Amino acid sequence: MDAIVWNEAVHSVGHPLMDEHHQVLFDQVNRFVELYCQPDPSKIDYFNALVALSDFVNFHFSQEERMLAQIEYPNLDGQEAEHTKFVDKIVGYTTRLNLQDLPQLTEFLAHWLIQHILVEDMQYKAHVQRAAE
Ligand SMILES: [Fe+2]
Q: Which structural domains are found in the chain, ordered by start?
C-alpha cells in the first residue's frame, strides 16, 4: 500500500490551522502504512501508532468542532457524529490490540481520512472563507 499524500489543491479546507492538522493526520496514517509494509511489525510500534493517532485526533476534533461552533456552522452535529464514530472505532482497535487488524485498519484509516476531508470537511470550506472576510 502506498503512502497517502496531502495536496493543497485537492485537500485544503480553506483554514490554515485545519490544513496543518490534516497534514499531521496524513503523517500519522502513513505511520500505519509504513508498519503494514514491514515484514514483521512489532506490537509496541502498532500500539504507539494507535496512541499517537488517538491523542492527535482527539485534539484535532475538539479544535475543529470549536472553530465550527465559532463560525456557527450549520452542520456541526453531523461533524460531531462522524468524529465520535471514528474515535469509537479507534478505541475498539486499541482495546483489541491485534496485529492482524493492521491491514484492515490501515486501509480504513487512509480511506476514512481522505473521504472525511473531501466530503464532510469540504462542506465547511465556504463557511470558513465567508467568516474570514
Ligand atoms: Fe472533521
A: 16-39+50-132 (1.20.120.50)
